[in-house]
Design brief:
This protein is mainly α. It is 79% helix and 0% strand. The protein contains 4 helices and no strands. The protein has helices at 4-7, 16-46, 53-60, 62-101. The termini are far apart.
Length: 105
């Protein structure tokens, strides 16, 4: 079974942090779509349209979807700052290695 990280297109050149960030952003988009559909069902119910049993059950999951969406949105800035910090450390480490390779006269 393929990993979720391997199914995101164009991730061959990204490191794990950036791949994870893409997966989380995709999850956010999916949750936003689901929230929109659930809100539309809720509006239909308020307007008096009768809904199927499955649709009624789906509407009850709206608070969970909203909670998950909020949690994912909260962690995005934290992961972005971690990725930025990691990139800075990589650059510092590579410049330290490069300076060690310069022969002294």
């Amino acid at each position: 079974m393929p990993s979720v990280l391997n199914t995101v297109k164009g991730t061959e050149s990204l490191d794990n942090g950036e791949r994870f960030l893409q997966v989380v952003e995709k999850k956010i988009r999916n949750l936003e779509k689901r929230k929109g559909k659930l809100n539309a069902l809720q509006d239909q119910k308020k307007s008096g349209k009768s809904l199927d049993h499955d649709q009624e059950v789906s509407i009850k999951s709206l608070p969970i979807v909203e909670s998950n969406l909020d949690q994912f949105k909260e962690i995005i800035p934290q992961f972005k700052s971690l990725i930025t910090e990691n990139e800075k450390l990589k650059k510092e480490k590579s410049t330290d290695c490069d300076s060690a390779l310069i022969p002294l006269l």
